[in-house]
Amino acid sequence: AGLMKPSLYFCNKVLKFETQKFVEEELSNINMPEMKGKEGRFQYTITDVKITELNLTHADLQFIPEVGLLFDVQNSSITLSFHRRILYWFFYDTGNINASAEGVNINTILNLIRDDDGRLKINNITCDARIDKMKAQFSGTLGRVYDFLASFLTSGMRFLLNQRICPALNHAALVHVNSMLETIPVRTEVDQYIGIDYSLIDDPVVTSRSLDMNFRGMFFDLSHQNDTLVNYAVDPVIREYDRMVYLALSEFFFDSGMFSYFTAGIFQMDIVNEKMPKDLEMLLRTTYFGAIMMLNPALVEAPLSLQLAVNSPPKTSIKTSGATVVMTAIVKVMVLPPGQPPVQLSSMTMETKFNAKVSMKGKRLAVHADLRRFKIFSNQSALESLALIPLQAPLKTMLQMSVVPLINNWTKRGVQIPLADGMDFIEEVVEYHNGFIVIGANLHFSKGLREMIAGNTEMEPETNTV
């Protein structure tokens, strides 16, 4: 656990506003049935019931520990309009009725779980809705005559509306929101070499001020997807509460990425011909002139190459001062006889240490590396290690010009954090701790929840009838 640990806090009103707007849109689409009946000498038919306005002024969104997410509406109002057809004796009258429901109270609790695929899912919704009172105003020629029907009609309308609110919200959460959550990938490709597993390790944990989720957060080699790295990293701890979302990334998150690129064979390259800096080539010829002459004097003018191959997965270290990556590689100096296999002149070990700067923009996490320390020594003798000292500076320059850009070419593209289309991180801040990184951000909605759902799946119209 703790490989990739996001926590969600309600430190501002953005998510509450989006949730409230979504609830209002769902309730506005409630379909009310046609009402027919007889009261004394009155026969009536009520049709075209529409909710014209919702005023959820007293709404709140909060966490209920070990229960779920609570959306609570108190003492709000709903305005409706519907069409009447009334027959009294031989008088027939039609017209519109405007009605208002007051004292609207809705209490909804969402229970969140991890589904079988490791996705976040709304498992259950508990809903209680109540309308305290409702009143109607008739229009038309005989409007005042029908006023005594208002109490009867509004009682029936209040009963039906009470029966419609919770089913509408249940359907919105269990069908529409879950369908959107199903579009968020839990296992996806990063590039042509590696992928990442975002699946939840266990069910979300709800506290009084946060929703905590542990994602696997593990990269994998696409050609060896079952190869895994043992996790020895510390479990991240999030103590910040200033922003809406905090994402904690342990050393294992980065190590698994380096391990996957290593097994995919990315960390190896040949530096030859135009890739070889001229001053480095001249220095190599001078250093290994004797070896070439002993091998075959005819090879003095043959091309030289450097073969670099990382011999073990790079390791990440995160401290409060920043993040570093240690990489060890075998460097072979080769002479390339025309029409013949390459011949090794020397083998050396290269130890490098890089500073790694983590950044987040939108919902893409990226890493930029800079060379911090460099050292080479011979694999053949201590004497040769002394002879390699003049190569230190040009090899370091070659690293900065060739190897570091190669590393950054893969890491700067970044990896996308799984958020639904229409949601992005803003106001990001990165903090370094011992063993993990914490990224804080606020959520920005470029689309409303209903629009986000509609963009991922066709939302079928409500057809609630009786």
From TrEMBL:
Record's keyword terms, sorted: Disulfide bond, Glycoprotein, Secreted
Residue ranges of every copy of the Lipid-binding serum glycoprotein N-terminal domain listed in the record: 2-224
Example GO biological process: high-density lipoprotein particle remodeling
Classification of source organism: Eukaryota, Metazoa, Chordata, Craniata, Vertebrata
InterPro entries in the record: Bactericidal_perm-incr_a/b_dom (IPR017943), BPI/LBP (IPR030675), BPI/LBP/Plunc (IPR032942), Lipid-bd_serum_glycop_C (IPR001124), Lipid-bd_serum_glycop_N (IPR017942)
Organism of provenance: Sparus aurata
Family classification: Belongs to the BPI/LBP/Plunc superfamily. BPI/LBP family.
Compartments reported by the entry: Secreted
Gene name in the database record: PLTP
Name used for this protein in its record: Phospholipid transfer protein
Disulfide bonds: 127-166
Keyword Cell wall biogenesis/degradation: no
GO CC term (a single one): extracellular space
GO MF annotation, one: ceramide transfer activity
Chief localisation class: secreted
Matching SUPFAM superfamilies: Bactericidal permeability-increasing protein, BPI
Start and end residues of each Lipid-binding serum glycoprotein C-terminal domain: 239-441
Gene3D superfamilies noted in UniProt: Bactericidal permeability-increasing protein, domain 1, Bactericidal permeability-increasing protein, domain 2
